[in-house]
User: What shape does this take?
Amino acid sequence: MTNPNHYLIRVLLFVLVILVAASFLIIPIGRAFMANAALNGMILAIFLIGLIFIIRKIALLSPEVAWISEYRSVNKPRLTKQRPPRLLAPVANMLGDRANGKISLSATSLKSLLDSIDTRLSESRDTSRYLIGLLIFLGLLGTFWGLLETVGAVSNVIGDLSLKGGNLEKAFADLKTGLEAPLSGMATAFSSSIFGLAGSLALGFLDLQLGQAQNRFYNDLEEWLSGLTKLSAGTNITGDHETSATAYQAALFEQTAESLDRLQRVMVQNEDGRDENNQHLIKINDSLLLIVDKLEKETQVIRQLSDNQVKINSVIGKFTEYSQEKNQDDYLQNLRNIDAQLSQLIKELKTGRDKSVEEIRQEIRLLARTIAVLAEEAD
Assistant: This one.
C-alpha cells in the first residue's frame, strides 16, 4: 500500500511556498486586504478551514493503510476483532468471520465493497469542493459589491459636478474628492476578486492532492481485493435467451462456494475442538495413572501391615510360651498391655486405610464426572 504521507508532504510544501511568497508581498497584500477587511477576512478564514480539512482527510488515510498492511502481513483472526477504521468498516465486517486466514470474495461482494468505499471517498471530498466554490462566490461577490459602489459613486460625482461661475479649480477639486469613493469601490472589487480566486486556486490544488491520495488508496485496495476474488463459472453468454440461466448458474456456483467455505471453517473449528478433547483425555489418563500408583502404594502398605501382624502374632506366641515358665501374673499384665497397644495400632491402621480408600473413591467419582461432561460436549 502506498503511504499517503507523501501527498501530505506535498501539501505542506505547497503551503510553505505560499507563505514565503506572501512574506515577500506582505505590504501590497496588506493594503489589498484592508480595502475590505471583513469580506477578505471571511475569504481567508474559509481558506484556512479548507486547508485544515484537506490535511485532516489525507492524514486519516494513514490508519486505513496501516490496518490493511497489518492484515495482509499477519492475517490472523485477532485483527478482525479490533476496532477497524471508519472508511474500511465494510471490508472489516465482510472479512471479520474469516478465522483461518483463507479469505475469498465473490465478484458481487467485491463490487459491493468497492462501490461502498468509492461512495465514502466521494462524500469526503464534497466539503472541499463546496469550499472551493464558496471562495469563488465570495470573490465574485466582492467584485460586484465593489462595482456597485463604483457605479454609485461615479453617478454621484457626475451629478454633483457643476461649472457655474467659471471656477474651474473648484470644479476639479470637487471632482478629485468625488473620485475617491469610486476608486475605493474598485479596490474592494479587485482585492476581493484576487483573494477569492487565489484562495480557490490554492484550495483546488490541495483538493487535487487529496484526490490523488484517495485514488491511489482506492487503486491499491482494489488490487488487493481483486487478488482475493474468485470468479464464478458460467459467465460466457452465447445468446440473450441464456442470460437468466447463466445468472442462475453463477448464483448457484457462488452459493455453493460460500457453503463450502463455511463448511471448511466449521471443520476447522471441530478439529480445534477435537484437539482440546484429546488434551483433556491425556490429562484424564495422567490422573488415572496417578490413581493406579496410589493404589499400588496402598496395597504395598497393606501387605507390610499384614506381614507385621504375622510377626507380632509369632512374638505373642513366644511370649505366651515364656509366660508359662515364669511368673504368670506379671507376664499376663504385660501381655494385656501389649494387646491393648496392638489393638489401638490396628484401629489406627484400619482408620488410615479406610480414609485412603475413601479418598481414592472420591477421585474416581470426580474422574467419572469429568469423563461424562466431556462425552456430553463431544455429542
About this structure: DSSP finds eleven helices and no strands in the chain. Residues 76-81, 231-245 have pLDDT under 50 and may be disordered. Residues 243-325 form the longest helix (83 residues). The CA atoms of residues 113 and 378 lie 39 Å apart.
